[in-house]
Amino acid sequence: MFMQLNKVRDFMLEKRMNGIFQTLDQINYALLHHYDEVLEHKLTPKQSLIIEHVRQHNTLTVSELAEKMDVTASAISQLLSKLEKGHYIERSINPNSRREIVVSLGLKGKELYELYAKVDEQIVSTYYAKLDDEVISQLEQAVNKIYKVVLEEQMESRPHELDLFCSCFYHLYTRNLFYVSVGKNTYKR
User: Fold this and answer.
1) Residues 104 and 59 sit within 8 Å (Cβ to Cβ)
2) Left, alpha or beta for 185 (phi > 0: left; psi -120 to 50: alpha)?
3) How far apart (Å, rounded) are the C-alpha atoms in residues 68 and 162?
4) Pairing relationship of beta strands 89-93 and 59-61 according to DSSP bridges
5) Interatomic CA distance for residues 138 and 83, integer angstroms
6) Strand ordering across the sheet containing 101-105
7) CA nearest 140: which of 166, 177, 181, 182?
8) Does position 9 have pLDDT exceeding 90, yes or no?
9) Which of 102, 107, 111 is nearest to 80 (CA)?
10) Is the torsion defined by CA of 170, 109, 86, 34 positive or negative?
11) What pTM was computed for the model?
């Protein structure tokens, strides 16, 4: 009997979550036009994550970046070459250790984050400003609880993927719940 109750509860939860996911998808589609300039950059999800890691840390060595992305130094170098050609990142010799290469944001990488800030401001002033403080607080609490649960699960099951997950969740949280799917080129016109 207890097993049947759990199955019913799980089914109901899955049904509710599917409804929430569907609504979030609809919101993403409705906000897509705000991201037209961002989507013109045509970055892949991995390229976007590299740029985000570099932005968060100001500079990273190639090996630190490879570790954060959970890829080899060779694989990260290939990705960095494309980003460097596009002026999204810059590579230079580490002044503290001449055998290391450090990565920092390039001109287009900085422009991209200025563009994101502009889009964030537009979305907040157009949509979120119409929500009362209580709704914003509930949203903040819900997102923080989800983050905590997922983070704890990640630490237990796959600690090596934790940094990559944190970066992805950072996008979800800081980019108004829509950045992950829109800013990471999941949706295309």
Assistant:
1) yes
2) left
3) 9
4) unpaired
5) 38
6) 59-61, 101-105, 89-93
7) 177
8) no
9) 102
10) positive
11) 0.68
What's CA 121's distance to the chain center, in Å?
17
Question: Quick one: CA dihedral 25, 27, 30, 32, positive or negative?
Answer: negative
Burial degree of 171 (CB within 10 A; 0-12, 13-18, 19+): buried
pLDDT grade for 110, boundaries at 50, 70 and 90: very high
User: Is the separation of the CB atoms in 153 and 2 below 8 Å?
Assistant: no
DSSP 101: E
CB within 8 Å of 122: residues ≥ 6 apart: 34
Q: What is the CA radius of gyration of the chain?
A: 19
For residue 41 the two structure tokens come to 């950059």
Backbone angles phi, psi at 102, to 5 degrees: -110, 150
**Lookup result for tokens 């800030």:** 117
Segment 152-181 shows an average pLDDT of: 55
C-alpha distances in Å from residue 131, one per residue of 9, 66, 135, 138, 165: 31, 41, 6, 11, 29
Secondary structure (DSSP) of 147-170: HHHHHHHHHHH-GGGHHHHHHHHH
How confident is the prediction for the chain on average, in pLDDT?
82
DSSP assignment of 20-67 equals HHHHHHHHHHHHGGGGHHHHTT---HHHHHHHHHHHHHSEEEHHHHHH
Residue 61: beta bridge partners?
102
